[in-house]
Known about the structure:
49% of the residues lie in helices and 20% in strands.
Amino acid sequence: MAPLNDRADFRTWMRAALFSINMVAIVVVTIGLKQLYERSIQEAEIRGQNLVQAIDLHLGGEVDKINLSLQTVVGEYEKQTGARGDAAISSIRALVKQQKELLPETEGWSIADAEGRVILHESDEGPADFLVTNRDYFQALKTGKAAGLLVSKPLKSMITGRFIVIFARAIRDRAGRFSGIVIVSLPLWYFDQVLARFEVGPQGVMTLRDADLGLVTRFPSDDAALEAQMGDARVSPELSRLVAEGKTEGTYRGVSPFDGVERIVGYRLLANAPIHVFVGISKEDFLIDWQQTSWRFVGLLALFLLVINGTALTLHRQWQKQRNNAASLLESNERLETSLRALRESQRRLEFMAYYDDLTGLPNRALLTDRMRQAMAHCLRKGDEHIAVCYLDLDGFKGVNDQWGHEAGDRVLVEVAKRFRSCVRANETVARLGGDEFVLLFRDFREEGDVERAISRLIRVAAEPYRIGNVQAELTISVGVTIYPPDGADEPDVLLRHADQAMCEAKRNGKNRMRFFDLESERCLREYQEKRAGLVAALARNELRLFYQPKVDLRSGEVVGVEALLRWLHPKYGLLQPSDFLHVIEDSELTLPVGEWILHEALRQKEAWLAQGMDMQVSVNVFALHIQRADFVERLETVLQAHAGVDPRTLELEILETTALKDLDEITERLRRCLRLGVHFSLDDFGTGYSSLTYLRQLPVAKVKIDRSFVYHMLGNTEDQALVEGIVGMAHTLGLKVVAEGVETIEHGIPLIRCGCDYAQGYGIGRPMPPEALADWLAHWRMPGIWSRAASCDVDRPTVEIL
């Protein structure tokens, strides 16, 4: 009976082994597919959030522009309160027309009085005589239920019958009483045009909802269906839960109440308007690739199971037929071993797919993260060793794909991976995160110089030409590096983010170089971003101010003008000087709105002074990026037309030497076109930049302003005094007037008078002051006696040799 028992045991073992193999294969494939599914869902959520942020940026910018225009009209109307005659009405009408031209997407602009009667209307169609008394937005502003910018729910225009969204602000008289509203209507089709710019797939949908989650618009959608659904506040239970929790942005999965499609939805509430933006990506659309991959895996699994079970069945039958034949039994064992090897190979392949990049064979993010954790733990144990995380990005790789196609791009990536692997040691890691982004993990070094030398070698190796068939491509790399433990981070993802930030800094500084991450740079970046956001809000909240510093004639003591200087009345930190925030404006898109605000405010103040009988030249500093805009002349002309009561010849624009570095001829021609409008130019801070005679000879400026650093040290520094004398002589030779900045004391004026300087400004004459303080200063200003005596002396002026 023993042989029979042995055979029964063998059959039981065979069945158990076969069952285990089947279960292992199914579990491995199931886990792999689940991971791929979760990754696909995460990618859909990220894409949805990115689209929501892009739409938020676009619509938020539009709301900011409309709000700024409304504030401009309201401010002008409130200023005209009490004025009589056609001139005041014409001024308001011209301003409204100008703002409508600046925002051509708007349908109409209206001003209604306190009773809801429209007293001014500007649009391309429809009557101007109608009432808005019964409109909810009018009642909300009149009763004080709403303040600031009001955004209405969609409603039908009384003029065109089309759906619009109203943006409105209340008008207050000088006593603070409600006296009307300014209305801007934005057609609903504008929102559809914005949403149409973004791609969300065949069954994707983008939706805008109001503060109560009522439907505003839905794209794509049939017009008739949209009109029936407008205002519908039905939402999925998932969104209701998130809103109840007070979350203004997020991601959820839900079934649409309108078409029953399950979507992955990203949403966000606009920061400056009660409008929710929703981007729904169809789960079915986004999972097409995953489904195809799943079917391939299922097919492979079925084939694998068929082979395994078929082989086992065959072996079993052979064993039954030849159980007494040792040779047959041995053959069956060999076949079983072959099947097990196939299973191990399949498992190895699945593990490779989970931890390695298919294209290059390099470790992916998951394996890199694991190795980073091990290396970080090793550093902490050793105490005197460091690791370096290097984030590498190929410069110009997009051009390879665009010019020669993605197949050529893949071949280049494979070659890049080979070169990187050749530059590291066996215990170090080269990983690919995706696209043209790689990460190198250097281990066990003690000096930063070791890392610099290794990366320099990488940069040289990467810069060698790449052969793609008969075509040669040249690429470079930008490298960001962070060192652990000095970095202070305790998670691999944080180290990668810091290295990525350093890499971006390397790209901004010219590419083909390395940059090390430091915490101070990150703090400065956060501070810069906070200040930029604060300045955007400051424009909307009217926190910016202009102070004015007088300029006087050094020989007669006559006040010849004032310079407008920007200040920020911060709600938390009080009055901020330009050095605290000007650098944030100068290298960003804020130069346009801030620059035009300064021009409008300076000219508005000029009009106020004219009304008081004070007529003097006003100087305004112009940002380099502002004047380098191709449409600068046209926009300047629009500003001047908005203040027709000011003679353009009394406006002086101050530019820096570096303004013309980009294209001297183009800037020169632009300045000449501005001169034809009547304005004048002066060259500010002369001596601190390139100080080239080319600028003085070619740029059509009337004055040169000597930088305060030279003037301030004149009294005790003969070199600075000689330099000032040289600048004055050179400017006069070219027929230019000279203004000295930084006259901090009365004594500074004496050497300036003796060297022939024309004008001066500084604390010794008058500090920058609010506009309402200028009249009192003028009443008390008297030319110092020592200046009069110095001006009356017959002093030989120095002869300046111009090389």
